[in-house]
Amino acid sequence: MTYVVGGGCCSDASCVAVCPVNCIHPSPGEPDFGQTDGVFIDPQVCIDCGACAEACPVDAISPLDQLAADDHRIAANATFYTDNPDRRSDGGLASWGPPSFDAWTAAALPMKVAIVGAGPAGLYAARELLLRSTAEINLLDKLPHVGGLARYGVAPDHPDTRQIVGVLERVARHPRIHLRLGVEFGRDVDHAQLADSHDAVVYALGAPESRLTGMPGEDEAGSCSASDFVAWYNGHPRIDTCPVDLRGPRAVVVGNGNVAIDIARLLLSDPERLARAELGPAVRHALTAGEIREVVLLGRRGPDVAAYSESEFREIVGLPGVTTVVADAPGVGKAIEAGTGRAGLLTGVRREAVDLSADPLPGRRLVLRFGAAPQRWHDGTLDVSDGQPIRAGMLISAIGFHSPPVPGLPYSDGRIPQADGRVVGMTNTYVTGWLRRGSSGGLGHNRLCAEETVTALLSDASSRIALPVV
Ligand code: SF4
């Protein structure tokens, strides 16, 4: 029997490190790592040891016999290896290369490191430092809890993925971590103060703000950013969310990434499904009593380049009581028939002409509309580039996130200029996570990012030590 990586894989790749027969790919260092929907297990090579399932922080791996025979995840794991036969291991015991002691001198140094941001990026960096040095770590965050995006960004109906919060909290409880919660960088402390009192400062502030479309009316009533909407349903303690109005009957979500899908899925879930989600009472009541019965996902480009993952897509089209249709438009049918990229997922989904300027039909419905850019929001109407307006009670922009500038640090194009995690033009100053690489990749990608940043930090610390002459 084989194990299978299912939906919700966070690409943390802890499983890759423990597999004794090297049958989990893409692995860190392979060119498509981070480009696929997580990692896959080769069913022909897996020896059923279960080590990967133990290591997975989000419980995304299960034995084959715990899945239904037609579960698409079984085929997805196998297909990866038929499409990429070069990844198939020979089933012999994996070799892990020689141990590296590149930063060994820093490991025993009495270092003090400040990490700004106690979300996944900051906590993965803290874990790396704990594992590879004796550093004492001051971990700062403006929020009253650690976890950042893992706590306040993961959808409340994905409890498995939310388990990563527990993993990160364990890091934060380590005796060499000194938590400074409720401390806001830029208001309560600045870079000069941190640099003066620490050997190194690591910035891990994430990308907390939504990208906006910039169209006229985006700040008018009924329009909300994805970061505000997600903050609302996840009970974020510090963000003043936009007024959420679920009177319906239609909402339009601009974007077709996983956050857009999360929002659409929650809006279309029936009360029974919402009852199982980890929601606060007020949000649960609002969603249950809300009147939205149709959600339009508006993609500016074609279905082949839709940004949602396969598992997120399959979950939403499988919602009980929800019909999914693709709005017919020039080029859309051809792209679906060609089946390239994400368009292949739409084979078999009904395609029809839809009139989104009229009230929606009875019943709950997801409408996927491609190749149409939002142009103006006014009086409950979204003007769209293809000339067919959408009437909606609520507009949510979910086209990605960005990091605002960090006082005292260089800034370019929504991130901190850096090399291997070292902030350009500064000494003993490092960056990790979305603030370093932009808002791409899931929670687990922060692990590798932190590894690189901490390697640079320890290597710099080592080079500052004058070795005794013997
Ligand atoms: Fe590798 Fe064991 Fe997981 Fe199979 S069950 S993928 S052999 S770690």
TrEMBL record:
Cofactor field: FAD
* Known catalytic reactions: 2 reduced [2Fe-2S]-[ferredoxin] + NADP(+) + H(+) = 2 oxidized [2Fe-2S]-[ferredoxin] + NADPH
Database matches in CDD domains: DMSOR_beta-like (cd04410)
Taxonomic superkingdom: Bacteria
Concerning InterPro entries, the annotation shows:
4Fe4S_Fe-S-bd (IPR017896), 4Fe4S_Fe_S_CS (IPR017900), FAD/NAD-bd_sf (IPR036188), FAD/NAD-binding_dom (IPR023753), Ferredox_Rdtase (IPR055275)
Please state the Enzyme Commission number of this protein.
1.18.1.2
Q: What class of enzyme is it?
A: oxidoreductase
Residue limits of the 4Fe-4S ferredoxin-type domain? 37-66
Q: Does the record carry Kinase as a key word? A: no
Keyword terms: FAD, Flavoprotein, Iron, Iron-sulfur, Metal-binding, NADP, Oxidoreductase
Task: Report any Pfam family annotated for this entry.
Answer: Pyr_redox_2
Gene Ontology terms, MF aspect: ferredoxin-NADP+ reductase activity; iron-sulfur cluster binding; metal ion binding
User: What is the protein's name according to its record?
Assistant: ferredoxin--NADP(+) reductase
Which organism is this protein's natural source? Kribbella qitaiheensis
